[in-house]
Specification:
543 residues; mainly alpha; 26 helices; 2 strands; elongated
Length: 543
Amino acid sequence: MPVQFLTAEQRANYGRFVGEPSSDDLTRYFYLDDADRSAIDLKRGQLNRLGYALQLTTVRFLGTFLENPTEVPESVVRTLAQQLQIEEAIELSGYLTGEQKREHAMEIQAAQGLLSWTDRMVGFRLSRWLYALCWTGTEQPGVLFDRATTWLLAHRVILPGCTTLERFVSRVRSRVENRLWSMLGRGITTEQQTQLEKLLTSPDSGRGSWLERLRSGPVRVSGRSLFQAIQRLKAVRSLGIKLPETTIPPNRLASLARFAGTAKITAILRLPNARRLATLVAFVSCLEATAQDDALEVLEVWLHEIFNDAAKANKKTRLRSLKDLDKAASVLASVCRTLLEVDSLDPRDIIFANTPPAILLQAVARVDELVRPPDDVYFSELDARYRSVRVFLPALLENITFGSNATGQAVVSALDWLRSYEMRIKPQPPLPTEIITGSWDRHVKKSNGALDYHAYSFCALDGLRKALKRRDIFVAPSWRYADPRAGLLAGAEWEATRTIVCRSLDISSDPKQTLDSLSIELDQTYREVVENLPETRRSASKW
């Protein structure tokens, strides 16, 4: 990191007055209390008393003594002069040439208990605080400089020179970065390092480096695109990069990975060896979550399109078959009408005289063929798209392992069974049937009791797309499809913070009281809606 990183504005404003202080600042920092008055009254002459007051209030406001104590806004001089009953027209230039200026500064520092920058404990405490700040955050050097200045003011330390503090921040930040790079490259073998360096080279055929190919996610939604996204995930995992056991802040990893994901290859090649290796390690470790999210996002959209297209195709098929259905229904309606009109106990002769048995059987068969239950899942249209599903299904089951909450457990069990079936794992586990709802039952189970694998696959994919939308299913590592419960407090950690969290949310720490109040509120709202419903209907009818 460069030693000089401050802007010209930061340098000009450091330890200096910037404009006129506000009225609140004048009241807070430039008001002289009894102790201040006692020290000031000991000085001889109006010039010394005003100069002493200027240095006393300036160090209180800025945290440092000015080289020229008289370079203060007019409002400051006027405020102090009024309190000391000194004429504002007094010439302050004489205070600069006297010996009292330095003596006053030393006296104020001792009386106010101000610490010096050269104090060893000051440097130790500031470096420890700043080190933790750099390790857990990703603030820019200029922001760290401002926060270090605030720390010095809060701990009553006289500000050092601008360049001195700038170099101090730079050294601490460099120590943090060197530690981070060392930790990321600690467990990397020579073979893995070679593979990572190879990412910056171009393949024998084609344009772009391997790194550019890995960081380029899917841009289309199709079975082939999903398969390529899964292969990208597989390629990232094949590198075998594992982070060290020591906890590294996620935002530090994300910062390095973000640089590798957007920077040019030439810029990465120019990095020092340790930083380049750490950047590639962070990129690959974060890329697994990104690649897995990209694959699941394409999967979610692709399944939505498959089922939507099948539903549209089912509607078109139903519209084309309405004429045949009407014809068969007319035959059956005629037979039913005859049954209702004839008083004979055996009306078959009359029915068969008007409608031959062959025509009646044909009409019944036609109705059975065309009529579908209200919750039908249009499996025939889905089965016509099974070939496109086969493009990605084996790779999906092999490379992505799903976790779930209690609601999504049936879907995960079905996917696990499909995985064992695809990979020919012996012995074959029993078929999970919890996912087979009533609308899928007649398609999954054939008339002879056998299993329709195509139907069961679509049944599991239907449950998968619904569970992904509800976030009942999750994967790890992931940014968008991670376990939503991962950040929740539990056990002893939750009990320790329960009171603080509940107080900040303004709710009772006793769940029964909170639930009872919500139940009462819901009941009252429901009763109000019921009471106002007739009036609402009358108002709506007028409109």
